[in-house]
Amino acid sequence: MTERVLTGDRVTGKLHLGHYVGSLQNRVALQDRYETFILLADVQALTTHFEKPDVIRTHLREIALDYLAVGIDPEKATLFVQSMIPEIAELTVFFSMLVTINTLRHNPTVKAESKADGLDEMTYGFLGYPVSQAADIAFCKATLVPVGEDQLPHLELARKIVRRFNELYKPVLAEPKPMVGDMPRLIGTDGSAKMSKSLGNAIELDCTSEELARKIKRAATDPARVHLGDRGHPDICPIYAYHRAFRAEGAPEIREGCERGTMGCSACKERLTKDLDLLVEPMRERRARYAAKPKEVDAMLAAGTERARGVARETMREVREAMSLDYFG
Ligand code: SF4
């Protein structure tokens, strides 16, 4: 049986090069090897953006365009909208009986995220979003879930919930396995540990050539390099990290030039700008083509959502039967 992959994004902002390196390019490869379901997680976005539904509405389409721009093919992968699958909400309620409040409170990722978002008090929805994620995975019986290290606690919880369900009622759900790849986390243009739109250190996938050049020009470098001839430390420089992530074959030469002080930062940045522009240009073109046909994009999302919904209905029929909640046949 073909393995099924579930992956996706919270729809709170446009996608950037960090997403490309960390997950999008991997998804483009996955769609050829597995049955791939890609979730536009608008309900999960509500956990932090419940007062700004318009932001979610806008970004849903922007992210769909980002997916198409990087080469995700709706003929191969099922792209769907989380809130349009009510069965996920139903499964979340059933799953919520199988998880204690303490388990959720002690989830290290939930703790770290609530701190990062400056939440003094967590809502019920925020605290419980890992349960909703378990339902996202289980409704389509995904067997593989690509995750970063920080998402492993969520996947472990999903596995526990599925196991508990299967043992308690009937083994109708698939226990998902993590796919922890060597997907690197891209640092921000300011040199901070993570590229993130909210930190203002991201290069968006839809940026123009001019924006790209400006962002690279302003990006941090090794502060020890003031003059050409100063020896640099590429490992603390975001520009070197990008060379390595996007054109690994040229990275040894950059390292050598930086460490010996023979390559100037301006020349190093110019080379990176050229390479990134070559990478992003076909994405810009694809994005523009799809952006000119918003009705087609909506129809594609609606078709993917309908397909996912069919799978969800079948799973919930089995879930209800397993739980003896199938009252009227
Ligand atoms: S030469 Fe390149 S890698 Fe070295 S500090 Fe300058 S920008 Fe960074």
From TrEMBL:
Annotated InterPro entries: aa-tRNA-synth_Ic (IPR002305), Rossmann-like_a/b/a_fold (IPR014729), Trp-tRNA-ligase (IPR002306), Trp-tRNA_synthetase (IPR050203)
Gene assigned in the entry: trpS
Annotated GO biological process: tryptophanyl-tRNA aminoacylation
GO molecular function: ATP binding; tryptophan-tRNA ligase activity
Protein name according to UniProt: Tryptophan--tRNA ligase
Organism (species): Cohnella zeiphila
Catalytic activity: tRNA(Trp) + L-tryptophan + ATP = L-tryptophyl-tRNA(Trp) + AMP + diphosphate + H(+)
E.C. code: 6.1.1.2
Sorted UniProt keywords: Aminoacyl-tRNA synthetase, ATP-binding, Ligase, Nucleotide-binding, Protein biosynthesis
Gene3D superfamilies: HUPs (3.40.50.620), Tyrosyl-Transfer RNA Synthetase (1.10.240.10)
Database matches in PANTHER family: TRYPTOPHAN--TRNA LIGASE, MITOCHONDRIAL (PTHR43766)
Similarity field: Belongs to the class-I aminoacyl-tRNA synthetase family.
A GO CC term assigned to this protein in UniProt: cytosol
